Each structure stands twice: as structure tokens, then as C-alpha cells.
Amino acid sequence: MAEAVLIDLFGLKLNSQKNCHQTLLKTLNAVRYHDGAKAKFFCIICCSNISCDHDNCELETGNGLSALLREFEIVSNPSMAASLYTIKQKVDEKNLSCIKVIVPVHRKTLMKAFIDQLFTDVYNFEFEDLQMTLKGGLLKQSTEVNIITSQELEAIQNEIETYLRSLPALKGELTIITSPLISDTFIHGFTTRTGGISYIPTLSSFNLFSSSKRRDPKAVVQENLRRLGKAAGFNANKFYQIKTDHASDVWIMGRKEPESYDGITTNQRGVTIAALGADCIPIVFADPIKKACGVAHSGWRGTLLGVAMATVNAMRAEYGCSLEDIIVVLGPSVGPCCFTLPRESAKAFHNLDPGCVRLFDSPNPYVDIRKATSDSTYANTEAQRSGDFLRSPPNQQYGTGCLLLTFRSEIFPPQSFASFNNCSILVTLLGFADCFYGSQSHAHQSFGIDSKVSRSIYQVAVDL
Q: Which InterPro entries match (predicted)?
């Protein structure tokens, strides 16, 4: 049963003012009869320059329409992309997902193409023929179109991209947090929640991940990524993101790409590699001597499997990196205050270091995956190279072997949220690394550990 009903009159040329009113009256009465009991949102979509053969054909007047129209919201925009995105915002505000679309036969395929670009599998659409509803054929007859050509699909995508580019940034300007340990040979950083166009409260505003469980479509994520690329100086069309499996496999770029992996390393110019994070830890690796970099996604399983050290070892084996030259930065993630595991799973962390687990005797102990990652990385590098382990303030941990810096999410509220309440709808920010050797740099603001920057040279930036 539909929760929202959309009547598509976008761009239709009606035979006359009388037919315009008759069409609407019959359609609206039918909708109210069939869907009025459950549907919470009724909408009419039309072009702002809709034309009739008769002048002064207005939706708001004539033949009893005025009272009926008060139950329907009219969305009128010059572009289909703008109209559907406006409707999506209204549907999302009411947290609705079952949508009936009453559409002329000849526009059904076009409508589906727009919906595929602007909605995700969270939504359930059903389509009803406008002519079948009216049974009177009051609209001008057109041949049904069953296929969208590649040129038409490209035009739809361009229309959507153009509209999304016109939207203002939400929650302020795009901000990137950087580490003072990584030299200007690299552009690096951690994106925050500001500067994007994602409006869903749990995803707002700089979300960089779309899935079948989220309301943010790929088109919105791609626009956020385009804005990040423009600010940071990388080419969003040469962008490679980790295919997470919560394991320890690493893809060395240039070799055959595995089906899944939680680490990437590269020394290639002009490509951007990225790691996801939110609850899980995004990690960046940078070697300014060999000009090689890497990113890794470390959840609790990846932490136990040693994905961080696997990435370090891949850089050593492939590029000849030395342990003392590799800088490892842990991005913001869920903290020990908020992350729990069943006792059986937490036991592995307790065996690694009892300090990684709090309330171990409880059914669901609190686990510090950040400490576990830094401790295990240090332990592995220490086993391969002797050195002193230096303790510094709570927001930093420096390890010899690899030089290690960690950011904690709680240092940066409210820009970088990470919690374990509902990872399927939690904002996902992006980590990236771009191998570009040069001498130019962009202006940036530096705030020590809390650096906020937009630079472009050889880059490494990490995802929350």
C-alpha cells in the first residue's frame, strides 16, 4: 500500500482548459478513493512552464478543483531533476518509502530512469498508467517508449549533475583535518561532516558512501566527491575505493585487483586511493622517501587480522620502503566509550592487551579498537626493528618502526561523528591518497593537530 502518491503532469500539453480540469479532477478523486486511507503524502509534479492549448490553464481553479487540490502538494520546477529531488526531500522528511507514481504511458520509462538515479533500494515504487486511471483518454495520445537510448540516459545524468552542483553546501564549508607529521610532499587529511549536500540527518552533510540500505543515492555521493576533489586537487574520475571485506587483504595497485580488500598501496601518479570509515578506523600510510602511500580500513575484525601491518608490509615488499620512513595516521573512529562486543569476541582483544577492554566480565565489554590497532602495529614493527616507544598526549601515539599518530573522534565534535548505534545509516566520509609529484601548493589554514586544510600536491587523505 502506497505511503506517498506522485501524479506526473510534467511537461504535458493538455487539449483544453476544460480537459485539464477534468483530467485532474478524475485523477485526484481516484487517488483519494484508492490511497487516501494510508498515504501520508500526495503530490502533483508539473513543469513551471506547463502549457495548454487554451490560455490561462491554471491548476488552482475551476470545477471543484480548489478544495480537492488542498489535499495535494504541487511541485513545479523547470527541470525534472529539480522536481523529483524536491519530492524526495519531502518524502524523506516524513520517512516514507512506498511510493506510487501515476504517470503517462509515454513518460514511464523516462520517469524510471530519473528514479534510478535519484533514489535507492530503500524505496519501493509502483507505477500506474495515467490513461488507464482516467479511462477517458483526455490527454493527447503518444506512442509508449520502452527504451531509453544511451544519449537520453546521458542527458538525464547531465541534468541531475547540473542541478546537484547548484545546491548550496550544508553545515558550513568543506573542512579537512590534517596531521602535522606528514610533510607537504603529501596532501592528506580527514574529511568531516561539513560542506556536502546530503540532507538526511544521519548522513548530513558530507556523506561519501551509498548503499541499498541508505537514502543517499550515488548521484549525491558523487557530487560530494566532486566537491572534495575540487577542494583537494585530485581527479574524481581516477578514484579507487577499498572494497571492504573486514579482513586483511591488500591490493597493490598495478597488480590484478582482488574481488575484495581492506588496504590499497600505490606509487602511481594521478590516481586517488580511498578508505572508508565511520565506526571503523580509516588509516593512511605515507613514505616521503619512496613517494609511496596506502590506505586501509580497519574494523574490529581487520584490527585482529592485522590489516594495518599488512599494508605496511605491502609497501615494504613492493616499493622498498623502510619501516622508519613510513608514517601511519589513524583517522577518527568509534571510541572505547561507545563500542561493545560480545564477551567471546572481546576476549581476543583482551588477549592482545587487557588495556584494550573495559568491563571484561560483562556480557558485552567495551573495546578500544584504536588502542588495539596502534599496539599491534607497534608490536609488529618492534619485532622487526628495535626502537623506543614514545608516549605522548592522549590524542597522539608515536611508535618507532612506523611513526604513528592517532586522531580520536571525540577531539573533533560535532564535525566527525562516529558511533555504533546504526552503521547502515551513519555518515561515511572519505579517505584518499593521490600520487602527484610537484611543487605547487594551495593556501591552507593550520591549527596544529586540528589542522583544517585544502592542499594539492602528492596527496594522501583519509576517510572517517
A: Cu_polyphenol_OxRdtase, Cu_polyphenol_OxRdtase_sf, Cytotoxic_necrot_fac-like_cat
